[in-house]
Amino acid sequence: MTRTTKPDLRTAGDARVVLCTVEGGGIEHDYRPVTDPDADGPGRARTYLRCVWCHGVACGNADQPDPCIEPYHHSPLPHRTATGVTWPIGGVRP
Fold it and tell me: Partners of 71 in the beta sheet?
């Protein structure tokens, strides 16, 4: 049996996630896919979008064509994609 390491995932409330874009002069997070092989139970992998600098995880799912790129648990900011589509939290995506 192979032992795996959980990826370091941080949410919007983590100061490192907030400071990542502030200290960078307003740049966006640089999200890349990272897989947790046991995220949804043993042997049930899930791929997240995680910033390479602060390890903040994106709100949207890695398998979506244009996911929300705000950090997970963002509030009160609306959902926002890289192409500029926005919609309110709890609302329906246009």
Answer: 58
Q: Cα dist. 28→4, 23, 31, 69, 81 in Å?
A: 30, 11, 9, 9, 11
pLDDT digits (tens, 9 = 90+) for 12-59: 999 999 999 887 677 899 999 999 888 888 888 999 999 999 999 999
Angle at 45 between CA 54 and CA 93, to 5 degrees: 70
Instruction: Name the residue ranges covered by the structural domains of the chain.
Output: 1-94
Q: Which helix (H) or strand (E) holds 79?
A: strand 79-80
